[in-house]
Amino acid sequence: MLGYINGKVARPKENVKTEHARDTEAWVVRSDLIVKSWILGSITEQITIYVVDRLIYKFPNADFTAKDVWDELQYKITNNGYTILHIAVNSGKNHELLELLLGQIPVNQQLVELKNNSDGSTLLHVAAIVGNTKAVNILAARDRDLLIAKDNKDQTPLAISLSNMHTETSWCLLNHVNTRTEKNTLFAGANGDNLLVLAISSKEFAWPFVRRRVADFDHSKEVLTTACEMICSSIDPSSHHLYFTNPLFEAIRQDAIEVAKEILYKFPDAVWSVNEDGHNIIQLRKYLQHSTWNERT
Questions:
Q1: Which residues pair with residue 280 across a beta bridge?
Q2: How far apart, in whole angstroms, are the C-alpha atoms of residue 93 and residue 101?
Q3: Which helix (H) or strand (E) element contains residue 118?
Q4: If you ran DSSP here, which 8-state letter would residue 14 be given?
């Protein structure tokens, strides 16, 4: 099917004898119908209706071609600035269509510039919101700037993915973070602290991995481990306390003991941390246990 779009499927010659002219015309019509059906069948019903209505308005007295459909899909089609690319990422219905659409964008056009007007979400933000891991791989390979792009709320795709509890997608995003610039942007200042708190606060990250066989691959554990390692490797040790204090106490509050152990293993000095009430981790643990006991009795 891609051959009809990229020209690899050759059409019959135009200068043909009269007796073959009808066959040529039939081939063109049939091929065009196939392509239109494939394109429109690869997107949601709502967008299909929108696109077809627009094309009927543009061509009231003539049928529109597959190329007309293709061209229409590249324009912004919603009030908030979403393009068909955003829709394709959001639906996760046809990754082949997504790759094909990306192939139509000029090489000098950065994907990071394609943001919607309302919240500043890039294509990667949309993929992170819905947990479209395959789209994350496709987009990150095309434009690495997407990894550190922030929306209007100063949120990166990784933060969005963590807050939506998409552990596999979060692990995928972390796997694409390779350069020191990317690490510093993601984990510098309060960002790194917030990312770890997000990971621990989510119930997905309560981590029953300790009850599983060691051989089991657990994306949740890998997310925390990788995040801690990135902070260790890219942030000056004298600033590590800025990153582990809140996550550690969040782990204690969530009764995620294995998570707390992981943080203490990566940041041994965290054992001396105190929270805003002046409690260390042992005191907080005892306080929470006492409070829970009182609630039950």
A1: 274
A2: 14
A3: none
A4: S
CATH fold label, 84-165: 1.25.40
CA distances from 80 to 52, 76, 284 (A): 20, 9, 46
From 101, 111, 166, 85, select the one nearest 133 (Cα to Cα).
166
Higher pLDDT pick, 41 / 108: 108
pTM confidence score: 0.52
CB 142 within 8 A of CB 151: no
Give the separation between CA 255 and CA 195, rounded to whole angstroms.
18
Domain limits, the chain: 1-77, 84-165, 177-297
Residue closest to 159 by CA, chosen among 227, 109, 216: 227
pLDDT tens sequence across 13-43: 444 445 444 544 444 444 444 444 545 455 5
**List of residues 6+ apart from 23 with CB closer than 8 A:** 12
Backbone torsion region of residue 165, taken as left when φ is above 0, otherwise alpha when ψ lies between -120 and 50, otherwise beta: left
